[in-house]
Every structure is written in structure tokens, then in C-alpha cells.
Amino acid sequence: MDSSTFIAHCLSFDEVIELPHFEKTSFRVNKKIFATLNIQKKQATFKLSAIDQSVFCDFDQNRIWPATGAWGKQGWTIFDLTALTDETIFDALTLSYCNVATKKLSEKYKY
To answer: Cα–Cα distance between 79 and 89 in angstroms, integer?
Structure first.
């Protein structure tokens, strides 16, 4: 998935805003980050539950891995945008959004 497609997907969710976050771009709902994009490294980071993080990492440990330190233990998971299907990335993005958004907002996107 290229950066512009990723950004468009992030902004397609209700009440999302795009803001800088250090050297990355962040996507927030209710002032909380649910995804970041590192354009230079072509990586996205998502806020997943421990179970979802485990499932995605088991799927492909070379292209999906927990963030280092406490961030990874809190569910932050890094995805290589160049090596995964758009469907995999969009599934993780949707889960991340639903983990951070209010129940009312997330109901629209849950499977």
C-alpha cells in the first residue's frame, strides 16, 4: 500500500484528524492516536489489543512486529506497508480505530 492510499484510508473513518507526531504523521480520533505513518520507512504503527497483536505478528513476523519496549507491550504494532496486502493493512487499521474510538463511532466499522 502506498502512503497516499494509507492516508486516505485513515481519513475515511469518522472524526479522524491528521497531525504531525515527531518524524511521523499521526491519525487521531478523540485526541487519541490510533495509527502513525513513517513515510520514509514505509511503515505504519497501529494500536491493537494483545490478542490482535499476537495474531498479526504470528501471520508474518518479518513484516509485522511489536514496537520496542513498553509501546509494544501496550499493543503498538509495526506493519511494513510495502510487503503486506492492502486487505491485511486495512483490517489492522480498522481494529486500531475501533480500539481508540468511542463505542458509538466504532460500531459502524466492526465486523
So the answer is: 8
Q: What is the pTM of this model?
A: 0.92
* pLDDT class of 23 with cuts at 50, 70, 90: confident
- Third-level CATH fold of 3-107: Aspartate Aminotransferase, domain 1 (3.90.1150)
Res 111: pLDDT: 64
Q: How far apart are CA 45 and CA 26, in angstroms?
A: 9
Dihedral sign for Cα 68, 100, 95, 13, please: negative
- In three-state secondary structure terms, 86 is helix
Residue with cell 514505509: 42
